[in-house]
């Protein structure tokens, strides 16, 4: 596979073009492109350019409304209810940043719930924006059904990311971003394409039995991180990100990958906290813990590898497979 | 070991007596006893009567101030800062229930941070009280150092529980309560007493190598749930429960088990959300997910086993080892 190196602006233009040719407004397309570029800069290609074809197909089919305008309401002083209006998630996530930050500063804590939403991409990127605003953010997102309650074979929960970011005195924010499946579903899809077995412990077949066959795994469920504790957390995320916000649960949501059926209508919840509300010196206290972790031999501070990669890719450009560029350029022509 | 069956009132009296004889006020002792009784009813003896001797010793030594009066301040409209004043955690946790519930109802979301606090017992019991008030609660607590950042051998984090409760239409609250270590440290302490090996995967020795020797494990660190993802969550909990609230980090906190040194000074954070703020019908939506999990063959809804046990123990009484009763009755005499 030959690849070429594109700069951020070129990647952005490529994405905007494909979406605008697929029944999406310039404004929504730019917001989506911002997020997918950040995913590429984070080294998370599975949430980046490789999503463009599926996004464009969904916009073209009307499964995602590319012309949707998200709406923010404030039913209580510390609470924003955001209707993503069955558009892409990113315009709604963008729209909330300033009002939610402002609300957290005045109230001490504030909450934003997103309904009728879509794939939120790299959750760590979303929360890091709040940390760069000087705020602590905690995010829960649900996704179409892929994991079963422990002991069962019904895919009631998504792989449901939990992300957290905190501003650190004198350094980049600390960012935690984990999904609640043991491995990303993309790894199983890749093994399936190459017709290779997957390691034991990654997934279950449709009957809930452990499997190393990627086809059986894709028809079954993903193994949770930490067994029963992981599915307990995934259930919690469903209730927070969807039950509370008025979004669809995992088992009600259609796929993020095809253009079939109703909009996925998943949800997200962001808790935003002003760390100065508890007193001064909090960012220095965060720095103290970050330093202890960084200084522990063998340990890595979450988020740092991604931030270093971002700096490097901003300078050197983003390597993209030639075939992927051709595919994206052909969309909607 | 012979055991007798005591009713809730007898267990409560036993605890109050031992604490009051150990430099603790009647009021604080009653609050602690309420919590330890609930732990026994939850089948979590490790957070129940077996803590009384250590609690009493700490109160007697002044490591815990048995006469402390917790103080609640409200620096922002949606934020409570609670100073547990180096007393037991429970009087502070009790004090917050009504003002935090009230604040969540008016603001939509509210936050309580606890500093200069102590062992919070069964976190699921704490959050369930909010759910019985009709609110969603999410709690993070830190604890003395027991887990290392993934790849390192430094016990920078506690086993740090995460607990969540939501009210369910027509049923008891749904309660998730997990610690971020793979198994409870008490299991390793029990194996050590019996001089038995522990299963592989539970713990690391002081050099960070996997061990099956319980002595080496107690001198080392606990394995996190889900490897690197578990320690990322434990770090997040340290920042939320301690960094934010002004409490001590795990690596700064003294033991909950002995009477040596300064007060542990750990922290807790509770996020409390009014589920009706996003619209009506939320409790029915929570019920829909709870039913899907309950109906999935092989799955269990988190919290249900504990709630059933509580009902049964309330009726039949709590079995307590005779030797433990003798030990507690002798405290302070």
From TrEMBL, chains A, B:
It comes from the Bacteria. One of its GO terms (molecular function) is oxidoreductase activity. The keyword Oxidoreductase applies. The keyword DNA repair does not apply. It holds the Pfam family Ldh_2. InterPro entries: Mal/L-sulf/L-lact_DH-like_ah, Mal/L-sulf/L-lact_DH-like_NADP, Mal/L-sulfo/L-lacto_DH-like_sf, Malate/L-lactate_DH-like. Keywords: Oxidoreductase, Plasmid. Belongs to the LDH2/MDH2 oxidoreductase family. This is Ldh family oxidoreductase. The lineage of its organism: Bacteria, Pseudomonadati, Pseudomonadota, Alphaproteobacteria, Hyphomicrobiales.
